[in-house]
Amino acid sequence: MKEILVVEDEAIIRQGLKVLLEQVIGRYQVVEAKSGEEGLSFFHQRMPHLIITDIRMGGMDGLTFISKVRQVSNDVPILILSGHSDFEYARTAMRYGITDYLLKPINRVELSEAISKLFKENEEESIETSKQFQKILHYIDDHLGQEITLKHIAEYVYLNPQYVGQLFKSELDQTFTEYITEERLKRAKKLLKDTRLKVYEVAQLSGYKSPKHFMTVFKQEVGMTPVQFRKFS
């Protein structure tokens, strides 16, 4: 289920907004954070599909929270909550790529319109996102025989490494490491079946520097050694 993160230090406003959101868009799970610090902690664990945050909060204020989010991802939509007296402050936040801002007290209709517009735009952009991820998968396929890290991929597609890692979870429901291991083993199986390469050569072409490590991983994941796999395939 898609998640919306609400960051607001005033409990009454935060809980009221949660109820309002659930009434307006019931198919999304609303997660509460009572401070910027708590919101950032949640964000690092699971990237939400939308963040709604107050500007003025005790401890880490809204601008600091937003700037730290943007260090990881420029793609997560952010709506800011602002009082009339905070308008200039809210406008300053727009430089961080804020999607929209809502004035307090929150109007049910305005909230519904803002979120509907936002999610409609996201759906229209989802194909482009998909192409970007395909670019990542092609990079991995082209470099499978070499060392591949999240940093390498991030530099190739101009994204934050942590965000690239989260893309694997959202797109494939796998970690980056799980995907790499799966693809290396697929290549190894194909080479074992279709060629007469020695095991250490298969290991090297599949991205394993150590034949011993390759054989350990292969047996653990496949249930037999590379030699046995070749024999019975």
TrEMBL record:
Alphabetized CDD domains for the sequence: REC_YesN-like
PROSITE patterns the UniProt entry points to: HTH_ARAC_FAMILY_1, HTH_ARAC_FAMILY_2, RESPONSE_REGULATORY
GO cellular component, one term: cytoplasm
Pfam families tied to this protein: HTH_18, Response_reg
GO molecular function ontology, one term from the record: DNA-binding transcription factor activity
SMART domains noted in UniProt: HTH_ARAC, REC
Protein name stated in the entry: Response regulator
Lineage: Bacteria, Bacillati, Bacillota, Bacilli, Bacillales
